[in-house]
Amino acid sequence: MNSNSQVYSTLSDLVLSDQVYKDKADMLFKLISVMEDHDGLGSPGIFMMIRPRGFGLSLISQSIQNLIKMDNENDNELSINTTPKIITTYQSKQNNLFNQGVAADTTSADSTLKEDSVKKAEETKVEEAPEITAEDSEAKAKEETSILDDIKNYIEDLVSEKKEEKADDFSDQSSIDEINKNASSQDLLVADEIDAIKTFYNVKKRPVLSLDFKHLKAKNPKEFSEGLLDILQEQFWINHIESHIDPYQTPKAYFDKLLHELNKKYPSIKISILIDNYDVPFMVASEFEHEQCEESVCDYLDMLNVIKYSNRTVKWCLLSGHINFSLASETSEGLPLVYDLSSEPMFAALFGFTREDVKEVYEKEIEKFSENMRISSEEYLDMLEQCYGGFLFADNDELYNPNCPKMLCPACIAHCMTNNGKLLPYSASGKYDFLKNALINNPRNLSWLYGKDGQDPLFSDSIDTDVKGKQLGSLLIQLGFATRTKVIINHSDSYVTWRYRFEFPNLDMKKTFDFISGECSEQDLIKPLEVKTETTHDYEED
Prior knowledge:
By secondary structure, this protein is of the alpha/beta class. Helix 4 packs across helix 5 (108-123) and helix 9 runs parallel beside helix 12 (290-308). It has a 5-stranded parallel beta sheet with strand order 2-3-4-1-5, with helices on both faces. It has 3 domains: 22-70 and 207-342, Rossmann fold, CATH 3.40.50.300; 83-201, no CATH class; 350-541, no CATH class. The protein has helices spanning 6-15, 18-37, 57-68, 83-100, 108-123, 134-166, 173-182, 185-201, 221-238, 251-265, 280-285, 290-308, 355-361, 363-373, 377-388, 410-417, 433-440, 471-478, 507-516; strands at 45-50, 208-212, 271-276, 314-321, 339-340, 483-491, 496-503, 540-541. Residues 196-327 form the AAA-ATPase-like domain. It holds the Pfam family AAA-ATPase_like.
């Protein structure tokens, strides 16, 4: 899809808007914290995040960059424009926990802080979290309560220091209450909570090297290598580093030089690397003849291998894309140890919309479209879920995600809302050339994948440029053409096994697959999707 289109502009506004971003902020901080806390044992932490097209993967990468990027070595303070939204989110959670009786009894100072939080939440018009049942409250609030306690305790220490600066004796409780009452909202509720959240999540400002291979194009290995060099050359310019490309220089040597120069520019702090669309070079190389493909992939993996041996310069690296390609081969060491976060329960809802997100963001549009169709808003939401929802990116986890949500594709929802609510197969406008070639080179019969219990966790497997066997199933899952709809967990004395069932997540992806595989024409794509009346998805544990 064209990133400059009206739909993608709308998607950018939505994902980064107050209404949606406030719900993603804590997960975004967790993602950064996981990468910051990682011990690479002599190597930088190298992480991967895979999501289907249309889920705003690049937008999250941009958000991380905007959040932590430092422009010079003395610029060590975070500049988080969205932090007040994060704060009011926590205040809303805190108020809800107090109302549900989950949090412990607090002191009078705690109550004062709570009242200030309520006022702040009302001023910023942040809605409280929906009421939770007694049965689910403990599991759902377990981590949140711990976070709130740590943040609250940290803030109380800062408040105590401020009080000591203003007076010597605070034995009189009324004096304490008076200072709390007159405390600056910006000084206490924002600045101190920003510091507390930063401390808890271990978010540090770092120089960021951002590489994007989205526009890489080549017809042979020579153009492939030149394309990589051009992308690296751009980073020299962006970071104001003088450089001259040697005609015989390899991407690996030039990338090593870039990291060396960044280390000289920022000698006292390690940098972070964000590589978006990391999978594009593999797909470009797959169009070449076999030997040329291997040569180009080796060239690319050799370049990435520089990161592994840059522990003095690089703290962590995040690779993001739509396909999980093998990052090591017989001809190149590449990146043999990469931590795939794609199926981590704590990040299952970081990308995409939940049903409640759609209901909140598009409330007016949904009301209008449902009235036109003479159905209720909830019924229209059901139709949206059947057409564009059903994506499940992690298993249920008792600690982080006891009820893993099914996500809706934000790009498709944006298309639908800007097209008068018409339920069309919008994903079919995406570019799936690599999948088309894989389908040509493999048997068309996919009955072994869909609707069969006892499947391996194919979603976590990496694939080669020459897709064979069950790698086709992994490719379809990673691109969103299949999702887990059932998991059976078997416990034994010494081990646990997981077995899955995969289905098309929704009608949009099914119709898109039919179009890619030649089972329907372009004329079929302008017909509304045939919405079913009911769907069933199970979760079982033995």
